[in-house]
Structure formats: C-alpha cells, structure tokens
Amino acid sequence: MKRVIAAIAAVLMATAGCSGPPTSPEPVASNAQPQFQYETHQCDDGTEETECPEDEAEALASWLEIQKAQQARALSSVSVAAVIRKGADGNWFVLNNATHAPENIRAGAAGVDDMGSYLRVYFDQTFPKVGAVLVTPDETFGALYSAGSSVGLAYFNMYIFNKDGEPVTPAQVIAADNGNFWVTGTMWQ
Q1: 95 close to 85: Cβ distance less than 8 angstroms
Q2: What does the alpha-carbon distance between residue 189 and residue 181 come to, in Å, rounded to a whole number?
Q3: How many domains does one find in the chain?
Q4: What does the pLDDT look like over 20-74, one tens digit per residue?
Q5: Of 45, 72, 99, which residue sits at a domain end?
Q6: For residue 96, what are the domain limits?
C-alpha cells in the first residue's frame, strides 16, 4: 500500500511541476511545497525502494490541490489613468472630453470628492488587490505643486504639496489655465 501511495505522490508532484524528493516537514497550508522524510530500503533484487507514509502522501496531495486552486484564482493587472483638474468654479473633476478619457476611474465630478485636506478619486469598480497609483503635476502645475497618493480598493486619496513640500488643501490650489494632475497606475482583478 505504501508503494502505491508513494507512486501516486510522485505522479501528483510531476503533474504539478514540482521537483525533488521532499526531505523535512513543513505546514501544509503554506505556499511552500511541503517536505517529507521518505524511507528508503534495499529490496531482495538489490534495488532501492522509496516509500512515503500514507499521511504524508495525503498532505502532499492536499498541498497540490491548494496550489492548483491558487493558480486558478490568479489575478491580472489592470491599468488606471486619469487627468484630475480643478474647474473655474473651484470644483475638482476627472477630465473626459474629445482628447482625454479616464481608464478605470469614474469620469466627471462623480470621480472626485474634496475631503478638505485631500481629494478622494474613485475607481469605476472595487478591486480585490492594490497595485500602485502615481500622481504627478503637468507642466502648468509642475513649478507650483507635487502630489502623492494613498491607495485603497475602491478609491485613492490624493495629497497635494507646495514647492516647499508643505501640504496644500485642494481649495488652496490655484485653478491655473488647464493645470492638471496626471494619474497612472495598476490595480489587480
């Protein structure tokens, strides 16, 4: 029976792309391949035979099933991009016109909330995992401001700073001629 289980474990390891005989125990729930101590003994015909205890073969099969399930749920990257602008009326919005369009970020005034000390910019969906979102000023705002973000699953918070690195509230930003903050990033879905 132990030979059969060892053979099954070897086949499972080969089909999952695993390699090498396990050598020391590890938790099964880990992403790392579990390692086991195989027993080797001399057969009557002079060859060596390796056996795997039943509970270890079952643990290995369970680990392989976990690995297959994780691969099936693998996430893919999604780009996010937008132009954030302050209108002449003092309200912030995500630019969406003939030459600019957001990608996976809500368009228009619905895409931005002024939270007092920062802007909250909304994705057009809730993502399961954060990647990174970068915010940078264009050539109009470049000499006046810098910006950074704190990213969540459904939105990111955009913080603005003056040329001396001091925080600036969204209300303090001058609505210069078409001054923009460019947003680019990656999220996971």
Answers
A1: yes
A2: 25
A3: 2
A4: 444 444 444 455 655 655 566 666 777 776 665 566 777 778 888 887 777 767 8
A5: 72
A6: 77-188
